[in-house]
Amino acid sequence: MDAAALDAAVGSWLAGRLSAAEQGQDRRQRGRRAVAVDGKAVRGTRHASSDGQAVHLLAVIDQQAGVVLGQAGVDGKTNEITRFAPLLEPLDLAGAVVTADALHTQREHAQFLVSDKKAHYLLVVKRTSPACMPSSRTCPGAASRPLTASAAAGTAARSTARSKPQPSPPGWPSRTPPRPSA
Predict the structure, then answer these.
(1) Per CATH, is 26-139 categorized as 3.30.420.10?
(2) Is the distance from CB of 42 to CB of 3 less than 8 angstroms?
(3) Where do the H-state alpha helices sit in 98-181?
(4) Contacts of 152 (CB under 8 A, 6+ apart)
(5) d(Cα 2, Cα 144) in Å, to the nearest integer?
(6) Domain boundaries, the chain
């Protein structure tokens, strides 16, 4: 059996069921549709391949329903970028918010989501991508919605607070090494 054809058939069937269920709900109950795109190495597949690399999949998930709408195999983490648009192409994402990690913070992905899919997006911007910080003119969407100085400062603010390790649950070993006794 063709795995890609099966995945496409099951994904479209689930999307249809999800769409039918949403039509029966009041708009206020549904809220805005949220879709996440993420890639993961499939656990336990590293030893099954000839090159010792784990099977890597890029998946799109409806966050409210917890349904995988589609997935595609990728050759490695960097090839997720080339599989992003083909994975989302068959889906109706009009009005949905699509979230993805920093790997997908690409101008082409943002333009594809807004222009082709009529969707909104939340993409992670790391400090290592200064060309895409909110105050940058090269950031996708910056020309259409210029930020005020106070908005840019608030958006780009960084936290200097250090997080404290949480205590271990009762009965679990301590997460911090024991201190030497005096």
Answers:
(1) yes
(2) no
(3) 107-111, 149-156
(4) 134, 135
(5) 44
(6) 26-139
Please tell me the pTM assigned to this model: 0.60
**20 token code pair:** 């039918």
Long-range contacts of 139-148 (CB under 8 A, 24+ apart): 140/107, 140/110, 140/111, 141/110, 141/114
Neighbours of 175 (CB within 10 A): 10
Q: Encoding tokens for residue 1?
A: 């059996």
Q: SS3 for 19?
A: helix
Provide the residue-wise pLDDT of the chain in tens; the chain has 182 residues: 787 788 778 877 877 776 666 655 554 555 788 999 999 888 877 766 677 778 889 999 988 888 888 888 888 656 899 999 999 999 999 999 999 998 898 999 999 999 999 999 998 888 776 665 556 555 555 544 444 443 433 344 444 444 455 565 565 555 555 555 55
Local structure of 28: helix, strand or coil: helix
